[in-house]
Amino acid sequence: MKRYPFIYIFLVSLSFVNAQSIFQKDAFTILADSLHVKGEYDQALLFRKQAMQTQNSASADYQAYLKAKYFHTYSARMEFKSYDYHNVDKAITKKVREQYLDSALQSAISARDLYSREKQPDRIFQYQIQNRIYHQTAYLGNWEHALEQAQLGYEVLKDTLSYKDKSFVDLIYDIGFIYSALGDYSKAVEHYQTSLDLYKSIIGEYNTDVAQAYNNIAVEYRYLGLKTKELESLLKAKTIWETLDENDSQQFLYSCYGNLFYWYSYYGDFDKAEEYILKKDKLRTDAKTTTNNLLLRNKEEIYKDKLSNWYDLMLHYSRKKDTLKSIYYTDNIIKTIDTRKKLSRFEVNTLCSSLKFYTSIIADKHPEKALQLLNKAIAIKEKYKTVYYTKSFSFKLYKAELLLEERRFNEASVLLKDLEDLKDSEETLSQFKLAILNAKTAQALHQKVVSKTYFDDAFTLLNNSNKNSNNIKVENLKPLISFETIAGFLAMGDFYFELYNEDHSKINLEKATHRYTLASEIYNQLYLGQRYNQSLFLNYNAINEGLLNVALAQPDNTSLLSEILNSIENNGSKLTWSKFVFNNQRQQLKIPQNLINQEEGLKAQLNFYQKTLIELNQDSEEKKSLWQNKIYELKNDLNKLQDSIKQKNKTYYQFNVQKFDITSLQADLKEEEVILKYIFTEAHLYTFLITKNEIKILSERNKEVVLSALKESLAALKQRLPNYQESLGNLSTLLLNQINYQEYKNLIIIPDGAIHYVPFEALILDRKMPLVSYASSLLLYQEQRKTKLSFKTVNIGAFSASDMQSKLPKVSHEVNSILNIFDGSTFLNATKADFESQAKQFNVLHLAMHSKIDEVHPEFSSLSFYGEDDNQLFISELYNESLNANMVVLSACDTGSGFYENGEGVISLSRAFNYAGVPSTVMSLWKVDDDATANIMSYFYKHLKRGEYKDEALKNAKLDYIENTDDDLLKHPYYWSGFVITGNTDALVEADNYWFYLLIIPFIIILFRKQLLQFFKK
After folding, report:
1. C-alpha to C-alpha distance for 296 and 301, rounded to whole angstroms
2. Hey, how many other C-beta atoms are within 10 angstroms of the C-beta on 549?
């Protein structure tokens, strides 16, 4: 139910001014009614008394009506006095508040009893009395009785007011609130949704009532496991309250920010979670500076806020793997809540959740202590079961989970059996978890028939259709889109795959495949398409392991392999791809100049604050929070603006941005092209081979063996070890020996994990070796291939930087030799400002300078331009750029290197140029040699000038370097293999077809021989 700050008119005025009585009212009653509506209850009571005194000769019915009016106003007065509990100037104790409410309730009941004798009652007045009764009953904590009274109120109003009357809609909303307090979340959602739809039709979307309905329905969605709906509703509530920007909306916005923190923390997006912590802090700070602190109005609210804040930080730091800080806040909560006294509902929930959380932290190392803490939480929940309707079901489920992990299967089985008797009163998600845990326990006890029954029960719980179980698609399931649901389907898949490995039954393999596929589809609906995080990666990894296992069991099922490849690709991170598509395609979009100006302004501000944050002293925590908050705001504003650009060009943008389908990429491949997609899971390395006409999955490799060989090979390359052939040979065997790569002209590598750092040319060096290129994903590669060049004049912007502190002696020779081959402009000793102002003029960018790699904060990695001040171009700044270049050549150290982030790949300078819309990048995998680089780059551009494809030009440049280098030591792969090309490999210029002219010369001579003879005789 809504509790506005300093609640003044608290629904007692529900259509009161329109209420009609069957009686001809006396003047005192009319006046008293008017004062009641205004909330002037003391004055109204005086006139109520005078009305009763002057009407002592009126009919008994009218006198009963006047007494009911008196008790109703008195009830309103006492309830209003109880609100002083939330009034910082008139704060009363909790006990006094309850006394006021009890007195209010007794008066309201008296009013109802008196008026119930009326044969033709005023239904509006009758409801106003009932409204007070259910509110006061709820405020006193008797939620079951409050529900009964609210439903009686519904019966009074349903035939009196229409669904278009806000009073009736408020009642529907309040019933939803009561159902939520009672733990019946499905019923709560039903009533919230009804009230939400009606509010929007009556008062419009941008209204506090609508925002509050969105916020509250989101909380119910959380309890029901409907994670995507939860976020959608929270964001709608936030948008409305931020738009309203009214003082009385700040308290609700504060709560909404807390709910958004909780969601993003669950999802694993710590940056977003931290953004909402900062937003809450700002609201709290601003509220303290006002005369009336609308957020924290008394000691209890300050106390609750402190605990809530600690709880937020406890979760935040745990998910950031800062265990010490997390335990610090957990201890604060546990020590602060005094269990020796009667706890409030809020204290019960906060303490129990904190104990459960503490359990999860110490469970691995201290399982007994963990169980003790969990038992304590369960005992508290049970103690207050009849007081606050608290439930211990989810806590007992978690206890069963811990017992399973400790291999205490019999104890888990007993506990789960007890929970079976209670499950009918629980929501679907809890019943689903129970069935999964029962199945796992039976599986551990080798009771496979029992296990199968429970897994099938779990599946049936989510089945929303009458279809056969193996034909069910994700749209046929109840919308429980959460990590827990994914884990349940993975457990089902693992079980059936285990059965298949024992009996080789086709049915069990089909069931395993189906359950893994559903887990993947649920994941796809949960993933927001933004940057990956640990939670997403772990689930993605587990899903892939299952899908790839069933793929290996059915290697000839091409349609299944295609489906699995599509699933893996569509579930992978879409961040680089989406940024590339937008910035690459925006050249074809019609964008109004005013939007471009707004965008440039936001980008400039964002770059300024990001740079300021990088350079900020570590001790400046207050400024750090300020800048972080500013960065979050600017990023949100930039995203909104770019979304509006997409919306204005919706037809074009949607036409070009589709879900990935491997068959469409295969159709574009040439006959002699092959793609190798590598996929690491928890234990294995898998490889897909993709050509125009086939898809194959190759035998898996042991992950640890591959990583060991990778480490050894990279050390041999980077340290220029003379005996590098053996280690490279071992790695080649692991990565390539199942592939006849000599059969192909083009080899496209889609690496994963540490394979990103390996130049495959070093593994297969040969004049006859295929042309090698790379891409971070099939999804991105498909888009990069679509970018076609028009063979207009190549215009190169060559930017170099070399100074006394970081000399590159050959850099000027390098850029000058390039500009002797192609047209363009040279910027020797280029400043960052030069690049920012000139880069968009060129269709090829060549950057020859040092780079700095920040392994701790990858976005702070940078290119070093000339000058002492503001000379670093950071990755974070490139993320906000949109370049026109067809190719960028990063002739600098480590431009393809950087921190590897699970699910996102290498956070490198090369990746940043992909963000900026550049379809083709030449990059370095380590600290390249200055002399070797200058020579290779010169050869590279000469081959490009001949019309060779980029990958062909780079291969030939490397071979030219080896053949023209006399010193054998300088032929080591360290010097030439570090440069690789990613993305589009089309030629920059159209090849001159000299061979064509050579072929037609003889025909010209034959046709015109007489004329030629006469010509030469002259």
Report:
1. 5
2. 21
DSSP state of 463: B
Round to whole Å and give the CA distance between 212 and 200.
12
Quick one: CA dihedral 95, 96, 101, 107, positive or negative?
positive
Q: Dihedrals φ, ψ of 996, to 5°?
A: -65, -40
Residues 6 or more apart from 988 whose CB is under 8 A from it? 789, 794, 844, 886, 887, 944, 950
Are 761 and 974 in contact by the 8 Å Cβ rule? The answer is no
Please report, for residues 101, 701, 905, the alpha-carbon distance to residue 680 in angstroms, rounded to integers and kept in the order given. 63, 9, 12
β-pairing, 795-800 with 844-848? parallel
Distance CA(217)–CA(183), nearest Å, equals 13
Tokens 């499950």: give the residue: 423
Q: Whose structure tokens read 């629904």?
A: 11
Q: What is the arrangement of strands in the sheet containing 872-874, beginning at the earlier edge strand?
A: 851-852, 862-864, 872-874
User: Average of pLDDT values for 812-825?
Assistant: 89
User: What are the pLDDT digits (tens) for 844-882?
Assistant: 999 988 888 777 777 778 888 887 777 888 888 888 788
User: How far apart are the C-alpha atoms of 728 and 710, rounded to whole Å?
Assistant: 9
Nearest Cα residue to 534 out of 269, 906, 911: 269
Closest CA to 146 of 166, 190, 120, 176: 176
Model pLDDT for residues 870-921, shown as the tens digit of each residue: 788 888 888 878 888 999 998 876 666 667 777 777 777 888 899 889 999 9
CA distances from 878 to 202, 609, 805 (A): 47, 14, 25
* Residues with Cβ within 8 Å of residue 250, at least 6 apart in sequence: 283, 286, 287, 294, 295
Which phi-psi region, left, alpha or beta, contains residue 671 (left: φ > 0; alpha: ψ -120 to 50)?
Answer: alpha
Strand partners, 922: 889, 981
Predicted local confidence at residue 7, as pLDDT? 35
Alpha helices in 798-893 (DSSP H): 811-819, 832-838, 875-878
How far is residue 689 CA from its own chain's centroid? 31
Nearest one of 421, 383, 385, 419 to 401, comparing CA atoms:
419
Do the Cβ atoms of 144 and 137 come closer than 8 Å?
A: no
The values of phi and psi at residue 508, to 5°, are -65, -35
CA-to-CA distance for 875 and 912, rounded, in angstroms?
6
**How far apart, in whole angstroms, are the C-alpha atoms of residue 857 and residue 899?**
8
Amino acid of residue 893 = C
Query: pTM for the whole thing?
Result: 0.82
pLDDT tier at 1012, thresholds 50, 70, 90? very low
pLDDT tens per residue, range 458-504 = 999 988 877 777 778 888 888 888 999 999 999 999 999 999 999 99
- Would you say residue 155 has pLDDT above 60? yes
